[in-house]
Known about the structure:
about 40% helix, 12 helices, binds NADP nicotinamide-adenine-dinucleotide phosphate, 9 strands
Amino acid sequence: MNLRNLGSSGLKVSAVGLGCNNLGGRLDREGSQKLIPAAIDLGITLFDTADSYPVGRPGVSEELLGEAVGARRSDVVIATKFANVMGPGEMMRGGSRRWIMTAVEGSLRRLKTDWIDLYQMHFPDPHTPIDETLRALDDVIRAGKVRYIGCSNFSGWQIATARAVSRELGINAFASDQDEYSILVREVEREIIPAARADGMGFLPYFPLASGLLTGKYKRNAPMPQGARITAARIFQDNYLTEENWQIVERLEDFCETRGKKLLDLAVSWLLANPTVSSVIAGATKAEQLAANVKAAEWQLSADEMAQIDRISPLPKTKKIH
Ligand code: NAP
């Protein structure tokens, strides 16, 4: 497994990571206890979770991850997140100093660890000044509870502002940003990835497999695979199984087939062809999926192949206002 630096930071992460939002949700305790060791055995070092995962059972993903990593803690990089809603009212969420100091302790306890490698702000908080958030994050780094900090779902201007504020204050800055990015969803190429790259940040794409559509297991006009994520949730069907996506997926499958490759190989390798992408944190529910995802990172796409992909799945044009 190749390791990459998280942007210009010294933190090394595996090119293929594991997104852990299935833990405690679609994947029960027993499944999680099998999946995490299998991932470590395959060379996966980056595990991405959040205090709010899984949906409806906040904290359970961190608990199961901490339990499954156990004594192998020093072999892995644990990335978690704060700022999403963790309780009723306005206090248990966001980026205030007060909440960060509480949230970090909760994550450390659930993860059964003394430190968090990458502590990410899950969403921007419009009600807290960014310098308050960054100073609090700098303090948890200085206290030894956190090694690096990152953000998620920030716009380009929010990324640039946060980095500038950290520079001005002479404190630790966000080392990475996380947002949705896949061959099918390329919007971040417009502002967010350029903003991250300009300041030496790494980028972690979420939904890199479009929740499974880019693995090739869903076919138009065929029964959907039993128990799979998109099959199980209407919201994913509405988001991903659109006429436009089917047309692109079918053309991408033809592109892969003529090269003896699979759609999954393309989904992972295409993301890794972007040097700002530090790790593809695909989610998985089975050890076989992990092995396939790791293998999928091997394809070195040529410039001509990348240009062909741009024609099949272009970045949509922006509307010009005259
Ligand atoms: P994803 O990686 O696009 O899709 C994961 C799903 O694809 C798995 O649950 C599995 O579905 C299927 N899959 C994976 N490997 C496969 C394979 N080799 N063959 C067949 N199917 C395969 O979506 P994601 O897991 O939601 O996103 C990745 C991570 O990003 C998350 O786990 C989370 O850590 C992070 N995330 C962050 C945010 C944020 O706001 N920062 C938002 C969303 C996600 P089945 O269930 O069908 O087996």
